[in-house]
Design goal:
The complex is a heterotrimer of chains A (652), B (110) and C (511). With 652 residues, chain A is mainly α. Chain A starts with a helix and ends with a helix. Chain B contains three helices and no strands. Chain B is elongated and about 55 Å long. Chain C contains 20 helices and two strands. Chain C has a two-stranded antiparallel sheet. In chain C, a hairpin with a 4-residue loop joins strand 1 and strand 2. In chain C, helix 12 runs antiparallel to helix 17 and helix 13 crosses helix 19. The longest helix of chain C has 36 residues. Chain C is globular and about 75 Å long. The C terminus of chain C is likely disordered. Classes of the chains: A mainly alpha (652), B mainly alpha (110), C mainly alpha (511). Chains A and C meet through strand 1, helix 7, helix 8 and helix 27 of A and helix 6, helix 11, helix 13, helix 16 and helix 17 of C.
C-alpha cells in the first residue's frame, strides 16, 4: 500500500506546477482574453485541489508509515564548492493538510473573484497573480529544506505585494504594498541570517532525512554557548523566528497586515487571512525540532510574542470601525494564538487551529467582500445595518464564521481553540492560558459587535443591498460547511493529532472543564455584545466617554504606525541618509575635487613658463644640451651609476 | 709663416657658421630670417661632413669616406624640402595674419 | 585547433561591424543601427555557443589561441576562456547587444556613436578573454577613450555637468589604470627575474605568472597597488564617487556597459590577478577589503535612499552591490569566490536592464526626477514590467539569479567572517527600501495627464527587456547552468588550491 502511495507522492510537484503553468499561459498568451484567463487559472487550481485530496487520502491510508517517514523526492538545484542545495517535495501529514487547505481556499477565492472582480480592468492580471501566488504558496508547503522554503517565502511575499497594490492607481494601496514588502523584508533578514549560519554549521538545510538538520540535532549535536550564556541553537531559533514574526504579523512586525486590506477583498481572504500569513506558523512548526533542541528560552519567547500579539491585536479590534480592519486585527490575534500554541509546545493544536482558522476567516473575509460589493465599496460597519433581510446567505454564512471564531461548539473554532487553551494550561503556562482565555472573550465580543452592527441593526435607507451572484455565494456556502465540520477532524479520538504531532504521540483526553470555561468566555463575549449593540442596555458611548484615553489609544492602534513613521522619516531619511549624502558630496568628493584643484593650481603656475615664443624654447633647449655636454665631458663617467637600465633591473 | 689649411680650419669655419646661424635663430624676429639662419646651420654641418670626408684616409677601417659627401647631398636635399615647406607656411601665415614676426606667432601657447 | 578561432571571431565581430559602418554614409542611420545590431548579435551568438560548448568536466582555459607578438619582452596575443571569464564574456555581449537596442532612438551623430560603442564593446570583451596581462591592460585602455567622448557628446547634465561627469569618470579610470600599470610592471619584472634563473624568457601570461612564488612583502605591496587600481574600477569606498555622477552623466548605452561590465573588470582583476597570483597579499589585505566592503554596502544603500534622480539611485545601488563582490573576495574561500563571479554576472544583467529602462523613461519624459514622475504603469505597462523586474532582481528576490549570487556570497562569507556576513545581509533591507520607493513613486499612483501622450516601448525597444529578463530568470530558476561553469572555473584555474592554502582560519570567538 505504502509503495503505491509513494509513487503517487512522487507526482506532488504537479500541484504547484499547474498554477505556475497557468500563470505562464496567462502572462504570455491569454492576457487579452479575460474569460479564458480566469478559466485557465481556476481549472489549474481545481486540478491541484483534486490532486491534493488524492495526496490527503494517500497520507491517511498510509497511516503510521508516512507519519514517521516523510516522503521526499528531490532534484539537485545548486551544487558548487561548499554549497549543495536540493529542491523537491516533501509529503507528510502536515504538508498534506496544508495542501488541502491552500488549494481549497484558493479555489474558493478564485471562483468568488469571478463575481467580485467582474468588470475590473485588470481581470486577467488578477488571475495571473492569483496563479503565481498559488504556485508559490504550494511550493512553500511542499518545501524540503529551509532555502527552498525561503525562496517560496519571498515569492509569496512578492505576490502579496503585487496583490495588495493591485489597484496601483490608489496611493493608499501603493503605500500599503510597499509597507508590507519592506516590513516582511526586515523580518526576513533575520531568517536569512539564520539560514546562512545554520548552513555554515550543519552543511545542510534539509528538514528531514539522513544528514538533515533534524537528524543531526537528534544525534549528538553538541550545543555550545554563543553569546554570553545563550546557546548556539537558541540564537539560531530566535533568528529563524524573526522571519515568521514578520510574515505572520507578530508584534512588532504586525503593522503591515491591517494596511494590506487595501487589496481586493478576495486577496485579503486568501493571502492575508488563510494562507500566506500562516506560512510563518507553518515554518515554525516545520522547524520545531530546532526550537525543541534549543534552550526553553526560545519557545518561551515564541509563546510570549504570540500571546502578546493575540491580546494586543484583539484590543485594537474592539475600537475599529472598518469591517476589513476588524477582520485583519482578528487575524493578527488568531495568528498570535497559533504562535503561542507552538510556544507552549502544542504543535498539533497550532496546526489544527491553522486549518480551522483558514476556513472560517476566509469565509468571513469573503462575506465581508460580499457586503462591500453590495454596498459599493462602503467599509464602515456603522454605515451598514439590517443586511440580513436582503442578503440572507451572506448573513447566515458570516454568522457561522462568527460562531466558529467565538469558539461555540460544534463549530470548528471550538475544537482547535479549546485544544490550544488546554495545552497552555497543561504545559504549565497558566498566565498564557489566562491571556488566551481573555482574548477568546474579546474575540467573541468584537466579532459579535461587527455582526450585530453590520448585519442586524437598523437598515440604512441610503443603502440598496442585494444578494451577491452565485459565483460568490457558492464559495461562501462551501467554506461555511468546512467551518462547521472542520473541527470534527479531532473526533472521535484525536485523529488529527495522530497524524500531526511532534515527538511521541500521546492521545490526550478532552478536558471538559477547560472546554466549558472557554465556551463560557465566548458566550459572555457574545452576551456583552448583544446587550450593548442590540439591546442597547449599555451605551457604547458611555463606555467610550468614561475611558477617552484608552479609546483613543486603541482607535489609533497604540500609535505604533506613527512611531515607525517618525523613525523612518526623521531618523533614517531625515538624518542618516541626508548626513551620509552630505558626507559623500562634500567630504569624499571634496577631497577628490580639492586634489583636482591642487593639480590645476600647479598647472596654472607652471604654464607661465610656456611663453609661446619658439625662440625661447630653442634657447632653453640649446643650453640644456650644453649643460649635458659639460656634465658628460667633465664628469668623467661619475654618472654611470645613473644608468637607467641598471636602475630598473632592465631586461636584456 | 705658412698657413696650412687642414681639418681644423674647416671645422673652425663650420663652427663659426653654426654659431652665426644659431644666433640668428634665437635673435631674429622675422620668420624668413630665422629660416635663413637655419640654412646657415645646416650648411655648417655640411661643411663638417665634407671636411671629414676629405681628411679621412681612404685605406682605414673599411669605411668609405664618400659617405660623408653623400650625407651632405642628403642634407642639401632635405634642406631644400624643408625650406619649401617653411616658406609655404610663412606665406600662409602672412596671408592670414599679415605678419611674419615670430613674437606674434604664439597661438599654440596654452 | 579550429576551435581557437571562435574567440578571435567573437572579438572581431564588432570590429567588422565597425569597419562596415565606417563606409556607410552618415545619413543612413537605420542601416548603421542594423549593422551594429548584427555585429553585436554575432558576438552574442558566438559567446552563447561558447557558453554551452565549454567542456566543464575538463575545465581550465579552453578555446585558447596564443600568438607570440613581441617576443623580446614576452608579449603574446593570448586569448582563452575558463569558467571565470566565460560568464563575463557572455555578460559583455548580452549587454553590448542590448545596449545597441537601448540606443535605437538616438539621432545625434549616429555614426560616431555606434562606432565608439563598438570600440567600447570590443575593448571590454578583450579584457575578459585575454590570457596575457599585456593584452588585458591594452584592451582596458582602449575602453577608456570612447567612454569619455560618449559622455561628453551624448551625455546629459544634471547635478553635475556632463563634462565634469565625463572627466571624473575618465580620470578615476586612468588613475586606477596607472596604479595597475605600476603593479603590472613590478609583477612582470619580478617574474622575469625568476624565470631568467630557470632559464626561461619573460612572459605576461596569467597562467605562468600564477605558477611562480613571490616574496610575501612583495605580494603585499603589489596587491595593494592592484587593490587601489581595481578598487577604483569596482567603485570601492572611498574611490566610488565617480560612479553615480558618471552614470548620471552618461548616455544610456554607456551607463549600461559601464555599470554592467566595465565595473566588473575590477572584481575580475582582483580575482584573476590579485587572489590567484598574489594570494598572500590577498590574505594580508582581506580584512581591510572586508571593512571597506561593508561600508560600501551600507553607506551607499543609505545614500541611495536620499536620491531624487533615478540614475543616482541605481548608481549608488550598484556601489552597494559591488560591496557584496568585494566582501566575497575578502572572504577568500571557494564558495564566496563562486558567489563573487556570479554576483558580477547577476548584477551586470540587472543593472543593464535598470539603466535601459531608465533610459527609455528619460527619452520619453525628458526627466529622471522621481518627484516629477508617477503612475507610469498606466501609460507604459511593458516598461513598468521591465523596470519592476529589474528592481526585484536588484533587491535579490528569489527566482532571480541575483538572489542565488547573494546567498552564495553570504554563505561563503559566513564561514570565515560571520559578523561581516550579518552586516552584509542587513544591507538588503535598505536595498529593498530604496528600490520599492522608486518603483512605487515612478510606476504606481494616480494616472497623470501630462504623461498620457507617452507610447509604451515596442519593436526594437523591447529587445533589452526580453533578453535581459530571460537571462535573469533562466539562470535564477536553473542556477546550475551558470554555477557549474563558475565552479569548474574556480576549481580548474587553480584558484581552489590557492584558496585552500591561504584561506583564513575560522576566526575564533564569536562562532
Amino acid at each position: 500500500m505504502f509503495k503505491e502511495m509513494h509513487n503517487l507522492f512522487q507526482w506532488a510537484w504537479l500541484i504547484p506546477f499547474l498554477p505556475f503553468l497557468s500563470f505562464f499561459i496567462i502572462a504570455f498568451i491569454t492576457k487579452r482574453s479575460k474569460g479564458l484567463s480566469a478559466a485557465i487559472s481556476i481549472l489549474a487550481i481545481l486540478t491541484s485541489l483534486c490532486l491534493s485530496i488524492g495526496i490527503g487520502i494517500g497520507v491517511i491510508s498510509s497511516g503510521a508509515e508516512v507519519v514517521e517517514n516523510p516522503v521526499m523526492s528531490t532534484v539537485n538545484w545548486l551544487s558548487i564548492g561548499g554549497l549543495q542545495i536540493n529542491f523537491g517535495t516533501l509529503i507528510d501529514p502536515m504538508s498534506a493538510m496544508m495542501l488541502f487547505v491552500v488549494t481549497l481556499v484558493a479555489s474558493m477565492v478564485q471562483i468568488y473573484s469571478l463575481g467580485y472582480m467582474h468588470g475590473d480592468k485588470g481581470f486577467s492580471r488578477y488571475f495571473c497573480y492569483q496563479s503565481l501566488f498559488a504556485f508559490s504558496m504550494l511550493g512553500l508547503v511542499l518545501s524540503t529544506n529551509l532555502l527552498e522554503m525561503y525562496v517560496f517565502w519571498e515569492l509569496v511575499g512578492l505576490c502579496s505585494y503585487l496583490l495588495i497594490g493591485f489597484w496601483y492607481f490608489k496611493v493608499s494601496a501603493r503605500e500599503a504594498a510597499k509597507k508590507a514588502f519592506v516590513t516582511t523584508r526586515v523580518a526576513d533578514v533575520g531568517l536569512l541570517i539564520g539560514i546562512v549560519l545554520l548552513y555554515t554549521k550543519f552543511g545542510s538545510l534539509d528538514f528531514y532525512g539522513p544528514g538533515s538538520l533534524s537528524a543531526q540535532m537528534a544525534s549528538g549535536f553538541q550545543d555550545f554557548a554563543l553569546i554570553g550564556s545563550v546557546s548556539y541553537l537558541t540564537v539560531m531559533a530566535l533568528l529563524v523566528f524573526i522571519g515568521p514574526m514578520g510574515k505572520s504579523g507578530q508584534f512588532p512586525f504586525h503593522v503591515w497586515l491591517p494596511d494590506a486590506m487595501e487589496g481586493p477583498t478576495p486577496v485579503s481572504a486568501l493571502i492575508h487571512a488563510a494562507t500566506m500569513v500562516v506560512a510563518g506558523v507553518y515554518l515554525v512548526a516545520r522547524m520545531f525540532f530546532l526550537f525543541d533542541n534549543a534552550s526553553p528560552v526560545a519557545l518561551e519567547f515564541v509563546a510570549i510574542i504570540g500571546s502578546f500579539t493575540a491580546i494586543f491585536a484583539a484590543t485594537i479590534a474592539i475600537a475599529q470601525d472598518d469591517i476589513k480592519k476588524i477582520l485583519a486585527y482578528s487575524t493578527l490575534s488568531q495568528l498570535g494564538y497559533m504562535m503561542f500554541a507552538l510556544g507552549v509546545g502544542a504543535l498539533t493544536a497550532s496546526m489544527f487551529h491553522l486549518m480551522t482558522h483558514a476556513f472560517f476567516k476566509a469565509l468571513m473575509f469573503l462575506g465581508a467582500g460580499s457586503v462591500i460589493h453590495a454596498l459599493h465599496e462602503k467599509q464602515n460597519i456603522w454605515d451598514m445595518g439590517g443586511l440580513y433581510k436582503k442578503m440572507p446567505i451572506t448573513t447566515i454564512t458570516f454568522g457561522i464564521g462568527v460562531l466558529a471564531i467565538a469558539g461555540i461548539p460544534p463549530f470548528a473554532g471550538f475544537f482547535s481553540k479549546d485544544e490550544i487553551l488546554a495545552s497552555a494550561m497543561h504545559s504549565g503556562h497558566p498566565f498564557i492560558y489566562a491571556i488566551g482565555l481573555f482574548t477568546a472573550f474579546l474575540t467573541a465580543f468584537y466579532m459579535c459587535r461587527l455582526f450585530f452592527v453590520a448585519f442586524l441593526g437598523e437598515e440604512k435607507p441610503e443603502n440598496h443591498p442585494h444578494e451577491s451572484p452565485k459565483t460568490m455565494t457558492v464559495p461562501l456556502i462551501i467554506l461555511a460547511f468546512f467551518s462547521v465540520v472542520g473541527g470534527w477532524a479531532a473526533l472521535p479520538d484525536h485523529n488529527f493529532a495522530y497524524f500531526i504531532h511532534y515527538g511521541v504521540f500521546e492521545p490526550e483526553a478532552m478536558d471538559w472543564g477547560l472546554a466549558a470555561i472557554s465556551v463560557a468566555a465566548g458566550l459572555i463575549g457574545i452576551g456583552l455584545a448583544y446587550s450593548i449593540y442590540v439591546k442597547k442596555a449599555i451605551k457604547a458611548e458611555d463606555v467610550v466617554a468614561r475611558f477617552p484615553g484608552v479609546y483613543k489609544l486603541l482607535k489609533n492602534k497604540y500609535y505604533i504606525d506613527e512611531i515607525y513613521q517618525w523613525v523612518i522619516d526623521k531618523i533614517i531619511d531625515g538624518f542618516i541618509a541626508k548626513v551620509l549624502y552630505w558626507f559623500d558630496i562634500y567630504i569624499i568628493d571634496g577631497i577628490v575635487n580639492s586634489l583636482a584643484l591642487l593639480v590645476r593650481g600647479t598647472g596654472s603656475g607652471l604654464r607661465r613658463f610656456t611663453t609661446g615664443q619658439l625662440q625661447t624654447y630653442a634657447l632653453v633647449f640649446f643650453f640644456a644640451v650644453v649643460v649635458f655636454y659639460i656634465v658628460l665631458a667633465v664628469g668623467e663617467g661619475q654618472l654611470a651609476g645613473l644608468n637607467p637600465l641598471a636602475m630598473l633591473g632592465g631586461v636584456k | 709663416m705658412t698657413i696650412s689649411v687642414g681639418l681644423s680650419t674647416y671645422l673652425l669655419v663650420g663652427a663659426m657658421l653654426f654659431c652665426i646661424g644659431l644666433y640668428g635663430v634665437f635673435s631674429k624676429r622675422n620668420v624668413i630670417a630665422v629660416l635663413m639662419s637655419i640654412e646657415l646651420m645646416l650648411n655648417a654641418v655640411n661643411l663638417n661632413f665634407v671636411a671629414f670626408s676629405r681628411f679621412t684616409p681612404w685605406e682605414n677601417q673599411g669605411i668609405n669616406p664618400l659617405v660623408g659627401q653623400v650625407s651632405a647631398l642628403f642634407v642639401i636635399v632635405v634642406a631644400a624640402a624643408e625650406i619649401a615647406v617653411g616658406l609655404a607656411l610663412v606665406i600662409t601665415i602672412f596671408r592670414n595674419r599679415k605678419t611674419t614676426n615670430v613674437d606674434d606667432l604664439n597661438w599654440l601657447k596654452w | 585547433m579550429s576551435n581557437s578561432f571562435i574567440l578571435l571571431m567573437t572579438l572581431l565581430a564588432p570590429v567588422l561591424a565597425l569597419f562596415i559602418i565606417v563606409f556607410i554614409p552618415r545619413e543612413e542611420t537605420k542601416m548603421i543601427k542594423i549593422v551594429a545590431a548584427i555585429g553585436t548579435f554575432a558576438a552574442l551568438a558566438l559567446s552563447v555557443f561558447l557558453f554551452f560548448a565549454y567542456d566543464k568536466s575538463v575545465g581550465g582555459l579552453q578555446f585558447t589561441m596564443t600568438i607570440p607578438w613581441i617576443r623580446d619582452i614576452g608579449v603574446n596575443l593570448g586569448l582563452g576562456v575558463d569558467g571565470i571569464s566565460l560568464p563575463m564574456l557572455l555578460l559583455t555581449n548580452l549587454i553590448g547587444f542590448t545596449a545597441v537596442y537601448s540606443s535605437w532612438n538616438i539621432d545625434k551623430r549616429v555614426k560616431d556613436f555606434f562606432v565608439l560603442l563598438l570600440i567600447l564593446i570590443t575593448g571590454v570583451m578583450g579584457t575578459f578573454i585575454a590570457t596575457d596581462l599585456f593584452i588585458f591592460f591594452l584592451c582596458y585602455e582602449i575602453v577608456v577613450i570612447p567612454i569619455y567622448i560618449m559622455v561628453i557628446i551624448w551625455g546629459s547634465t544634471k547635478r553635475v555637468s556632463k563634462e565634469y561627469a565625463g572627466m571624473k569618470l575618465t580620470i578615476y579610470l586612468l588613475i586606477g589604470s596607472a596604479f595597475m600599470l605600476v603593479a603590472m610592471v613590478a609583477l612582470y619584472l619580478n617574474a622575469s627575474h625568476q624565470l631568467a634563473v630557470l632559464g626561461q624568457g619573460p612572459t605576461f601570461m596569467f597562467a605562468e605568472l600564477a605558477q611562480l612564488q613571490y616574496d610575501p612583502s612583495f605580494q603585499i605591496i603589489v596587491f595593494g597597488l592592484f587593490l587601489f587600481g581595481f578598487g577604483s574600477l569596482i567603485s570601492m569606498f572611498p574611490f566610488h564617487s565617480w560612479s553615480p555622477d558618471g552614470y548620471a552623466g552618461a548616455p544610456t548605452a554607456v551607463s549600461m556597459i559601464h555599470a554592467g561590465v566595465l565595473k566588473k573588470i575590477g572584481g575580475y582583476g582582483l580575482i584573476r590577478l590579485g587572489v590567484l597570483v598574489l594570494p598572500l597579499g590577498g590574505r594580508f589585505w582581506a580584512p581591510i577589503i572586508a571593512v571597506l566592503a561593508i561600508i560600501n554596502i551600507l553607506y551607499a544603500a543609505f545614500i541611495a535612499m536620499a536620491q531624487k534622480d533615478l540614475k543616482y539611485v541605481v548608481g549608488y545601488s550598484s556601489v552597494s552591490h559591488m560591496g557584496n563582490v568585494l566582501l566575497a573576495i575578502a572572504a577568500l574561500n571557494i564558495t564566496s569566490i563562486n558567489g563573487a563571479v556570479a554576483m558580477m554576472f547577476a548584477h551586470g544583467v540587472m543593472a543593464a536592464l535598470f539603466f535601459s529602462m531608465i533610459g527609455f523613461i528619460y527619452e520619453k519624459t525628458h526627466t529622471r526626477n522621481i518627484g516629477d514622475l508617477g503612475g507610469l504603469a498606466h501609460q507604459m505597462p511593458r516598461l513598468a514590467t521591465g523596470f519592476m523586474i529589474a528592481g526585484m532582481a536588484g533587491l535579490g528576490l528569489p527566482g532571480t539569479v541575483n538572489f542565488i549570487a547573494e546567498f552564495t556570497i553570504f554563505n561563503g562569507v559566513a564561514k570565515v567572517m560571520p559578523v561581516q556576513a550579518i552586516l552584509g545581509i542587513v544591507g538588503i533591507i535598505f536595498t529593498a527600501v530604496y528600490t520599492l520607493r522608486v518603483i512605487a513613486n515612478v510606476l504606481f499612483g494616480p494616472r497623470r495627464a501630462e504623461w498620457d501622450h507617452l507610447k509604451d516601448i515596442r519593436g526594437p525597444e523591447l529587445v533589452p527587456v526580453v533578453v535581459l529578463v530571460f537571462v535573469i530568470f533562466a539562470t535564477g530558476i536553473f542556477p546550475n547552468t551558470l554555477f557549474h561553469l563558475i565552479d569548474s572555473g574556480v576549481y580548474t584555474s587553480g584558484l581552489a588550491k590557492v584558496l585552500e592554502t591561504v584561506g583564513q582560519a575560522t576566526i575564533g570567538g564569536l562562532f
